[in-house]
Amino acid sequence: MQPQQLELLVVREMPFGKYKGRRIVDLPGHYLAWFAREGFPKGELGQLLAIMYELDHNALRHLLDPVRHAAGLRTGEQ
Question: Rounded to whole angstroms, how far apart are CA atoms 72 and 53?
Answer without folding.
Answer: 23
